[in-house]
Amino acid sequence: MKTAKQAGLALCPKCHKLNNVTSEPIQCSRCNGLFYQRNHHSLQYTLAWCVAALLAFIPANLYPIMIVYQLGIGEEATILSGIGEFINHGLYPIAIIIFTASIIVPLLKIIGLFVLVYKVHTGVRLKPNKHSKFYHVLELLGPWSMLDVFVVALMVTVVELGFVTSVAAGPAINYFTITVLFTMFAANSFDPRLLWDKKSAIQTQ
C-alpha cells in the first residue's frame, strides 16, 4: 500500500490540509503554516528522553518519597515501603493503585517507547492496524502516570500514622516528577508516522 510520503503528500498539523511536498519546510497552501513531512531526529530525541526518564526513575524508587515525624523523630518511607504498609493494614486496593501508578505505568510507557523506537529503526513491523493502537495506548497511559504526584497525600490521609507531628515530602517526589515530565517529552517527540515508512526511508531520518 502506497503511503502519503511515497506519493509526495504531507498533512498540515495545524489545519489538516493535504499538501504537495516540493521542498522542506513545507508551507501549507491553506493556513501558510510551516511544517515538515517527518519530524527531524524524532528517534534520537525520543530515545534521549526515554533514557533520561529511566535514569530518574531509579532514584524515584530508591529515595524516600515522604518523611513522617512522630514525636519529633523522622521515619523515611519509599514507594515500596509505603505499599508494604498498605498491605500490612489490609488496604490491598490502595496498594494496587499506588503500585500501578508508581511502578507499572511509568515502566510500561518507557518500555513501550523503547519498543516503538526499536521497531522504527529496524523496520520490524506489527500488523498495520496495530501500529496506531499501540501508540495510542501509550498516550492513554500518560495521565495515569501523574497519579503518583498524589501518592504522598494519599498515604497521609488514609494510613493511620498514630501521633504524627508533621509529614514532609521526600526527594523521591522530585525524581518522580522529572520521570513523568521526561516520558511526556519522549511521547511528544516521537513521530508515529515513522511507523508506516519503509526501513530504507527511516534510516534517512
TrEMBL record:
Coiled coil: none annotated. It comes from Colwellia ponticola. It holds the Pfam family PqiA. The keyword Transmembrane helix applies. It is found in: Cell inner membrane. Its main location: membrane. This is Paraquat-inducible membrane protein A. Keywords: Cell inner membrane, Cell membrane, Membrane, Transmembrane, Transmembrane helix. InterPro entries: PqiA-like, PqiA-PqiB_transport. GO terms for cellular component: plasma membrane. The chain crosses the membrane at residues 47-71, 91-116, 137-159, 171-190.
